[in-house]
């Protein structure tokens, strides 16, 4: 689950990119960050003050204890657990009024589908998703309604619609 492995150093807000290290297929790649997501991440970082990983699963541990294995403190993984990530996604989906079952892969599928519908080339979507085989990416075409628009982050489209409908966030 790639979101568990995001480190602060992987975020490039100036280029609007996130470096995924050893992601799908054990390959590195870059993914787009929307303006709205960048604002949210900057706020999150300011409030939560993460040290290494963007999302820490155990907020009660001191980073100095982690770095000193001879302190008698057992090694542990400070990242969110897979179950924790799934819980967050299900909780947010419920708050958003989404009644169907939502999983982490649902987000990847939606991201790919929206990019293809917005006219992003299937080769670019393949690279963004980290698919080795184009056939894996082509599976997303069956649900797409394709257009000729310029590529951009699908989140910008979602938030533009929210603003249009009177929700400023």
Automatic annotation (TrEMBL):
GO terms for molecular function: DNA binding. SUPFAM superfamilies: DNA breaking-rejoining enzymes. Residues 1-156 form the Tyr recombinase domain. GO terms for biological process: DNA integration; DNA recombination. Keywords: DNA recombination. InterPro entries: DNA_brk_join_enz, Integrase-like_cat_sf, Integrase_catalytic, Tyrosine_recombinase_XerCD. This is Integrase. It comes from Chryseobacterium lacus.
